[in-house]
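pls ignore typos typing on phone
flavin-adenine dinucleotide + seq
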Amino acid sequence: MDKNHNDIFALESDLKRAIQGDVRFDSFSKTLYSTDASIYQMEPIGVVLPRDTDDVLASMEIAKSAGIPIMPRGGGTSLAGQTVNHALVLDFSKYMNRVLEVNYEERWARVQPGIVLDDLNRNLLEEKRVRYGPDPSTSNRACIGGGIGNNSCGAHSLVYGKTSDQVLEIEAVLSNATKINFGPLSPGELEKKLTKQDFEGNIYREVLNIAQSNSTEIESNYPKISRRISGYNLDSLLGNSATNMADIVVGSEGTLCMVTEATVKLVKTPRYTGLCIVHFSDLAVACAATTPILKHDPSAVELIDSMLIERTRQSPAFSRLMKFIDGQPKAVLIVEFSGETPSEISKRLTSFKVDLQRQSLGYAWLNITDKIEQQKVWSIRKAGLGLLMSIRGNNKPIPFVEDTAVDPSRLGEFVRR
Ligand SMILES: Cc1cc2nc3c(=O)[nH]c(=O)nc-3n(C[C@H](O)[C@H](O)[C@H](O)COP(=O)(O)OP(=O)(O)OC[C@H]3O[C@@H](n4cnc5c(N)ncnc54)[C@H](O)[C@@H]3O)c2cc1C
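k done
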């Protein structure tokens, strides 16, 4: 899409007239928004920081009239170039970052897309013991909207699933610059939507038609693994009594609409947790051990390999946190158990260790029940990529093939190959 200088100037002026938020077309801002956490760089046409849904509607209307692409952005922590493009970028993180409503009894929160995940959790009353479930490593800077775009999940996906398991309803701005609400529809409500002779009716008819006419392919070829996040979630529309178009928005990487509000579930947090750090002298053996480990119903299983252990030992900030590593393992698995009493945790850790020893899985099994010590372990896991990138010199790991999802039962074989 080639736009000349006058077109761009007119676009900027139109946006400045229509928008309450910020409009940035200066080269410094465009350079800032040319990158995200990926290796890709593309300069945007301009940047809008909307203050509210009306700003999003106006931006969409202006972009549509000018015939230019438009792209939403949250924290910009995507690793595969999702938030860089020659487009009008809408950054939701500066102003549209509020908690709008919380219902503790029914356990849900209505939020704006630019709220950072950790900020949402900090906003919730501690005594209610609830939190937003998905916890990607970037939770201190990644936003709800970005998590919806990427269908993010984190260390606790075993218990809380992916973002698609946590989103109840979505308010969004569509490409025709109108607002829409997506939520669960009963068969009767869906029938009514299907008869509507407007853009919304079209969406329901077209999307359901795509899902139904490809149902055989979808059912046989969509991988049946819990952490699959690639592609549109067309499988969610098949064989369900309630249809929810929000399921299709989750994981759509900003290609379908701009989310302006989301109602998300809150999950109950466990009273107590305990970790077992299982040490392995072989990486593939550690990966293969996840299958027997999962039989113990842990709340998280995460791997730290020898390269990350080495980097952490050399990092002045993190080396003092590495007291939980025994010897020179090729990998450790952090296995977390959750429960309502300390004795429940203690029993689970004991039977877990006995079972692993019986199967000769690992060479050392360190239990950690102290809360602060557990946080230190998680902080290293969360800092993983940053620590790897801190390797001195020009030879750095390059993150560009991300989120390969493998059935845990084949993980050992996958890593060995
Ligand atoms: C070190 C590191 C560790 C990571 N660890 C994890 C991990 O453990 N698990 C995981 O899932 N991911 C992980 N990621 C990837 C990324 O951090 C997450 O996917 C995160 O949830 C993205 O949030 P964000 O706000 O940065 O989104 P962005 O990168 O800003 O956007 C992500 C996508 O969402 C779209 N989007 C943003 N806002 C909206 C909106 N309002 N409406 C519609 N679409 C929108 C964007 O267009 C884009 O396609 C990691 C990344 C890094 C750099």
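The longest strand covers residues 272-280. The pocket of flavin-adenine dinucleotide is lined by residues 36-37, 71-79, 82-83, 92, 113, 136-138, 142-143, 145-150, 152-154, 253-254, 258-259, 385 (CB under 6 Å). more later
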